[in-house]
């Protein structure tokens, strides 16, 4: 084995190293894309299935190996369907030419002002148990969802956001979508998640928040109408029971450019 490895190393050229580097970067980008999504667990299951197939072949368990090989064939055919949200996200980023580029952030001052207004609005809505669904657009455009709502294009302020979600007003039933520091539309419809493992207590707002973050890289702030609980959705997962300070701490690393590498500060937990 060692001789084979040494032989491979001895025959490697600069082009081989470049080839390996490109593949490694690509695989890393794939991992980053799916690590915070449901696809992460699906990929782990696929790896386990592949390992079982190799072990069964090594142990000459012919019947089990045959069954696993047939299962792998079915799984490979089903992968484009199962990973549809992640594939769509990757293709959209590739089409925009930014698959190897970091997200675009507000500058520090703009982000801090924006977060302060958003947190103030969320806390006020929570205290009054007014339901809210606030979507923050990032790299992937949300024009498809904006077109289903009412176009606004207004400067973000806590008073403006609160007013949108006042019960029995034309815009309260739906999502408000924010691009940068401007509310672009309200009363927007979002796709609901089809994750059957979610807590049954979660209503339409939370399922819509999870659904849109499964298909895009958006962030969604949710305020429960029944309990007043503030939640934050990202990459198909929901972080619940936040207060104003908790919401601020979780939004800041994602929206302030100088802290863009601090994603490990997030401690997402499953909504189930």
Itemize the secondary structure elements and their pairings:
Elements: H1 2-11, H2 14-34, H3 39-58, H4 62-82, H5 84-95, H6 108-127, E1 132-137, H7 143-146, E2 150-155, H8 158-164, E3 175-179, E4 182-188, H9 204-215, E5 219-223, E6 230-234, E7 237-242, H10 244-255
Parallel strand pairs: 1-3
Antiparallel strand pairs: 1-5, 2-4, 3-4, 5-6, 6-7
Helix pairs in contact: 3-4, 6-8, 6-10
Average of per-residue pLDDT values: 82
How much helical structure, as a percent, in the residues? 40-55%
Low-confidence stretches: 258-272
Helical segment count: 10
Question: Any idea what the shape is?
Answer: elongated
Q: Order of strands across the widest beta sheet?
A: 2-4-3-1-5-6-7
β content, as a range? 5-15%
Q: What is the number of beta strands?
A: 7
The ordered H/E elements are: HHHHHHEHEHEEHEEEH
Rg, Å, rounded: 22 Å
Largest sheet: 7 strands, mixed
Instruction: Tell me the distance between the termini.
Output: 46 Å
Structural class: alpha+beta
Oligomer: single chain
Description:
With 272 residues, this protein is an alpha+beta fold. The chain is built from ten helices and seven strands. It has helices at residues 2-11, 14-34, 39-58, 62-82, 84-95, 108-127, 143-146, 158-164, 204-215, 244-255, and strands at 132-137, 150-155, 175-179, 182-188, 219-223, 230-234, 237-242. A seven-stranded mixed beta sheet has the order 2-4-3-1-5-6-7, with helices on both faces. A hairpin with a 2-residue loop joins strand 3 (175-179) and strand 4 (182-188). Helix 3 runs antiparallel to helix 4, helix 6 crosses helix 8 and helix 6 packs antiparallel against helix 10. The N and C termini lie far apart (46 Å). The model is unreliable at 258-272 (pLDDT under 50).
């Amino acid at each position: 084995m060692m001789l084979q490895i040494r032989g491979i190393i001895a025959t490697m050229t600069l082009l081989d190293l470049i080839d390996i580097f490109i593949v490694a970067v690509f695989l890393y980008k794939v991992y980053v894309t799916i690590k915070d999504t449901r696809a992460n667990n699906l990929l782990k299951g696929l790896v386990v299935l592949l390992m079982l197939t190799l072990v069964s072949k090594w142990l000459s368990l012919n019947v089990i190996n045959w069954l696993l090989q047939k299962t792998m064939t079915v799984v490979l055919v089903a992968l484009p369907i199962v990973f549809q949200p992640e594939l769509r996200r990757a293709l959209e980023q590739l089409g925009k030419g930014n698959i190897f580029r970091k997200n675009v952030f507000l500058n520090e001052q703009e982000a801090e002002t924006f977060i302060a207004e958003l947190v103030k609005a969320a806390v006020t809505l929570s205290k009054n148990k007014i339901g809210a669904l606030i979507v923050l657009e990032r790299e992937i455009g949300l024009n498809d969802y904006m077109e289903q709502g009412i176009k606004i294009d207004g400067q973000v302020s806590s008073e403006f956001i609160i007013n949108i979600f006042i019960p029995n007003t034309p815009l309260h039933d739906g999502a408000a979508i924010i691009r940068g520091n401007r509310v672009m539309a309200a009363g927007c419809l979002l796709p609901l998640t089809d994750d059957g493992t979610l807590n049954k207590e979660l209503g339409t707002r939370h399922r819509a928040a999870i659904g849109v973050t499964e298909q895009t890289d958006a962030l969604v702030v949710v305020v429960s109408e029944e309990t007043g609980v503030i939640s934050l959705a990202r990459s198909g997962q929901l972080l619940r029971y936040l207060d104003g300070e908790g919401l601020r701490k979780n939004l800041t690393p994602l929206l302030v450019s100088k802290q863009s590498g601090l994603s490990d500060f997030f401690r997402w937990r499953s909504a189930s």
